[in-house]
């Protein structure tokens, strides 16, 4: 992927926003377990950063997805993972299907305000019994008059305590599990919604995560995104951008942590020399830097394929898998070099150690990614093909 002047200017703008508007507040937001999503996203909307690859007709820039990847990479300069994740939900996880398949009326009512930063958005797919296995979700929507009436619950919903609407995947019929689901825009102030339960997480603590209960929640049928019964397919398409965004947003953060550790080990003296002078330490740092650069190359290659309109499903799954594993390897190794200081709660390394653990779980666990990759390689045992098909 060749970075143009426009790519570099976008990166510079986003990085400056991160340094000026996000990083000074990270410690406070981490402590409170929530970020001021409306305030932050409105500032980003004013800069045109929330609709980079969205249609110009609804306030977006209409650029190709390579610019979205550069945006995600620049967000990785945030000193916590939760805020880039919350922003990514708005830009790359909850809105792609609406932008592609929603009616003009629906896009004017919900997409345009999300791009402007006037509305905060959540993606509501996972349930307590249906995380990576999306096909198993139980939340239902029945038709009654001109409405859908929704009953069920959603779990681990990012931005869930403060979002204005959610892109929600529900069962709209009794048919086959891959053809009975639909994506519906659900206003979060609708009667029958309870989202008071804010979840206490190991990492990503700067973003709020909610459990949502829905009891006879009425939503107009015009809030359906695209065609009824196509929700599973639409969500799988959204997952591709989610996985690519997540991988891209990890690159600069891991690079910065490696650089911080180089400086720390250079200054820290032990047994008559700096830690960095130990061959094991500087060799290990070289290995970790190589792994991050390999992740970056894979992300850029996948972006090229995606922008060209070719099927990037396997590569996007590889990006997600690699990002999770590299993130765990890098943060674990660096924490060891920081010793007791690295074990302190507010250290950037310990925060990253907690935050990156989610990457191998959320948006499809490592095992799901391996199943998808195996299927697309043509090497999955026949008895498991149907399982991977559900997740790809």
From TrEMBL:
Name of the featured protein: Acyl-CoA dehydrogenase
GO biological process, one term: fatty acid beta-oxidation using acyl-CoA dehydrogenase
Residues in Acyl-CoA dehydrogenase/oxidase C-terminal domain copies: 229-375
Species this chain originates from: Stenotrophobium rhamnosiphilum
Residue ranges constituting the Acyl-CoA oxidase/dehydrogenase middle domain according to the UniProt record: 123-217
Cellular component GO terms, alphabetical: cytoplasm
Location of the Acyl-CoA dehydrogenase/oxidase N-terminal domain: 4-118
Cofactor: FAD
